[in-house]
Amino acid sequence: MTDSKREGHRPATDNVVEARNLTKRYRGGVLAVQGLDLTVRRGEVYGFLGPNGAGKSTTLRMLAGLSRPTAGHASVAGASPGTPQSLARVGVLIEAPAFWPYLSGRDNLRLLARYCRLPDRRVGVVLEEVEMSDRANRPVGNYSTGMKQRLGVAAALLKDPELLILDEPTSGLDPQGMAEFRELITRLGQGQRTVLLSSHLLDEVEQVCTRVGVINRGRMVAEGNLDEIRGGTRIVIRAEPAAKALAVLVELLGDRVEVGPDGAFILRVESDRTAEITQRLVSAGVGVTEVRSVERSLEDVFMELTGRESGA
Amino acid sequence: MTIAAFRGEWFKLVRRPAIWITAGLLVALVVVVGYLITYLVATHPPQGAHQAGADIAALRAGLYPAALVRKSLDNASTLDGIFALIVGVLAQGSEYSWQTLKTANTQLPGRIALLIGRMLAVSVLMLLLVLSIFALDGLVAYLLALADGASAALPPASEILKGIGADWLIFEVMAMLGFGLATLFRQSAMAIGLGLAYSLLVENLLFGLLESLGTAFKQIHDLLPIANANHLQQSFGQVSSVVGFTVVSSGEIDVARAVLVLVAWTAVLAVGSAALTRFRDIT
User: Fold this and answer.
1) From the CA of A69, how many Å to the nearest CA of chain B?
2) A180 or A244: which leads in pLDDT
3) Distance between A97 CA and the closest CA of chain B, angstroms
4) What ipTM did this prediction achieve?
5) pTM (2 d.p.)
């Protein structure tokens, strides 16, 4: 599908995925997803984070139309999930890629191209894109995990979709395979294409995503761009006498001052205020012994959010 | 969308070795059981067996082209039908085993279009199998007639067409039985096991015994698919018994009713599969 054709189908909204109050209760009463709100904007690489069993795959299965929500609703590429209108514009790789093992990689894609009424030449294009052209004529039953993952991405790209939904695409890959895959996802997310990527690998998300949502026990516990999620930078200061230092800092910054367990002052302000704060402390007769700027890692935030929520 | 789905389903069905192995076995058995064994019995009657000369002659005549339709339908609801059932199971059950339903259902056609496409592909395959059986039977019958110096005249074309239609309908209902069971159980093994148990034990053995207990059982049996497949094949002439299978005698045969019941079962199994596919989550 060409860009101009895709353009013609685009909805007025700039949100490619909108889910509201999405809920999934399985038979037997297990509540996998509860009241989930999710928004993915056009052109972004959205990281959907959560520990194992948090409800990521269930959510993505609902967005792909494979599962039906028990409550709530979603719009994916401007239509209900699973409808031909939505499927035409969405490429999906959910959990481990599944293919017909007696067919070659190329024939698997040719089969999918027939489903979508796409010409066979499209198969060659996507095989090139995932660097699988030279290995595509072997039966899929003989493929390694990495080759299957690549073929899975090729299958998801076949329709030249405006939205790619990738569920833990680096799962089962060795470190080199993971690095190559991250490069691939970054490349795929360039331009107008939107990528919704689920993962429990924080460094992966940190490297490739522009915005993230964190899900735990079926609920969205945080959503925003990486800086928002991490809560911006912090300045850590050690100063004596501590009481006088605290008074000066509170007067200057109010409730943005915390005292750490080791007695250091943690200031939730941007690092460009370091000079101003140090000068005020020195002017007040406080001796400053250490000043440093720190950035919370996504892992810190993730552990805080999912650990606290799960009672860990 | 259904045409696109059919093209995809046909693409993968005809490239699947298991389908060709099953079809090849069926065609080989049709020739071996239907012709070669019968021909051996007719030309070399077992010692001690009481075989009147007229019966041997009739057995031999049943192998010539004039009896093509009757002979090709001989084992339609039993031996051939079981192979059709296995093909139906393979076409649908493996999609669950390989988890390829999620791959297919995240492409364009949509769930129901994809399912209809798969059913159509199986139907076309069933027709090709029936045509292959008729063609091979015709060839073997012609060669046997030639060897015996007997007439090689075929039955009227209308009779052959009716026979092909009847055989196709029987294959279709058996394939849909396998397809429906695979959809219900979301796997192949249980579907094949239960399909075989139903075909061989429930309808042919259990109901055969129950019918002797009262007419109510006979009336119920007359609504079931394999009984009606038997009725339909018997309408083309008395079938010969096959080792291992008991062919139920139906007395007066109402062909139209048998066709109607088989069409109804095919429709029920197709709609049932569609309903399960429509409302269940894809795993």
Assistant:
1) 10
2) A244
3) 8
4) 0.84
5) 0.82
